[in-house]
Design goal:
The protein is of the alpha+beta class and 220 residues long. It is built from 6 helices and 7 strands, in the order βββαααααββββα. The longest helix has 49 residues. The N terminus is likely disordered.
């Protein structure tokens, strides 16, 4: 399981996760950390419900399911590409700016405006930032290149649906077969109440996160 926005992964050997276990997650924030947690029983209940729902819909409305997954996934992929291209442009602009800063810093050191010690300290800071940006730029270039050629394997997911026709309980095999990852969001307060709502997002193998329509509405 992953947490959002922390991105930390929970992984347990043997059983898919411990029995009667409450997971606690931490995320870094300015000035400290905050935490949020979720009980494994809650995750299992939601996962089983959503797994039965998506497999039933895929089995009963196969053509609609293929169109739905393709449409939603293309929309998500386009969003990821926009975000990645924006971040890449910002990284490239910052790298160029750091080149200018480093040049001016060197000139100030030569002219005696700053000491050698201060120059070395400031240069290291800027060089470290530049290395991190260059590394991130490589990652973004690779993602954008592969994302443009990405094709979803809806047929592979449908093959799994046909194999597991009636899922009544979770097993390690079923989870490994269907689930890529589970994102656990930080609880948010419901306006006008004292309660908090916590959302989890299930990313299925081959198709990612998909919103399945209510079948009752479809057949009404």
């Amino acid at each position: 399981m992953y947490t959002t926005p922390c991105g930390r992964l929970w992984n347990r050997a043997g059983r898919y996760w411990p029995v009667n276990r409450r997971f606690r997650f931490w995320r870094s924030v300015p000035g400290g950390c905050t935490s949020h947690q979720i009980h494994n029983v809650q995750v299992e209940k939601i996962l089983l419900r959503e797994l039965r729902r998506i497999t039933a819909y895929a089995h009963e409305h196969e053509d609609d399911f293929v169109q739905l997954v393709t449409r939603q996934s293309e929309k998500e992929l386009n969003r990821q590409l926009r975000d990645s291209n924006r971040e890449l442009a910002q990284a490239e602009a910052r790298i160029q700016k750091l080149d200018v800063i480093m040049q001016r810093l060197y000139e100030d050191n030569v002219d005696g405006k700053i000491s050698d010690e201060r120059f070395a300290r400031m240069a290291k800071t800027y060089e470290d930032e530049q290395r991190q940006l260059e590394s991130r730029k490589v990652e973004l270039d690779a993602f954008i290149a592969t994302a443009k050629e990405q094709r979803l394997s809806v047929d592979s997911f449908l093959d799994m649906v046909r194999k597991y026709t009636d899922i009544t309980e979770l097993t390690a095999e079923i989870i490994r077969t269907f689930v890529e990852k589970i994102e656990v969001m930080k609880p948010e307060k419901v306006p006008g109440t004292r309660t908090k709502k916590q959302t989890i997002v299930i990313h299925w193998n081959f198709i990612g996160a998909v919103e399945i329509p209510d079948t009752k509405e479809k057949t009404a």
